[in-house]
Amino acid sequence: MTSQAYLGQPPCLAVWFINPFTANENAESIFGDLLGEYSYLASKSGVTLARRWYWRQIVKTIAHLCGSAYRAAPWSATAAAVGGFLLHRFVCGLPHKLLSEVTDRYLAFWSTHFNAYLWALKGMMPAPLIALLCVGCIIALPARGREMVATITLALVLCALIGSAMVWTATHLPRVLCGCCGHWLIRSRSLLAGQSSERIDRLR
Amino acid sequence: MRLADRAYGVTVRQEIKFRTKREVSIGAIYATLDRLEVKGYVSTRLGDPTPERGGRSKRFFHVTAKGVAAVTRTQRAFRA
What we know:
The structure holds 2 protein chains of 2 kinds. Chain A is mainly alpha-helical.
């Protein structure tokens, strides 16, 4: 197999997916093994089949790596996810609480400068995303080596809550549903991006 | 043990596929071998980087004496 010609790169998206899940000591071996077999399959059975095989391996590998990381330290992963959830509840409400405090205290100013108030409201829109980035970073710090398991568990819990909320909205307020979907997808992605940035920073 | 000094992720995966006719993922192989390494049943060493692996080295596994003893014990238990 080692004498096979090297045939192109595996799907970039698949590599990007698996990258955060591989621990430092295993990353090189896993990527090397996958690339070696991909090249062999691509030369033997064609690139399409090799790509399909690569994607299947990525999905199975991610499931196994998540499972083994969770089994290695179930309590710390669960604690990180629960802590992250509580932190998320606390942090995500902060920007709006802060705005309420400021508007209540300087009510006279805001009533005369209503446009400024509207700008402040618009400025608050990315605040929950920034808060989720911070939550992702904070979870990743104590859950080193298992940050993906902790953040994915938290993201799944949040997705389950969002799913329940969406079912309720679909049955009671169907028009609001479309707007909510995009908003919550971006928020989940922010959480994962937060832990990824902490992880990348650590690996450097 | 069958693969001797050629045991790394790809060959272990192929050997399992050949013996059991079941497809296992690379992730499952490494997760299992990591656990065996922690228990002291296998040891690892890094090989030389090769161009077909994108310049990445192979991680070779070797069954330790403790691992051989564990396999022998398990085989005896199965046969009994």
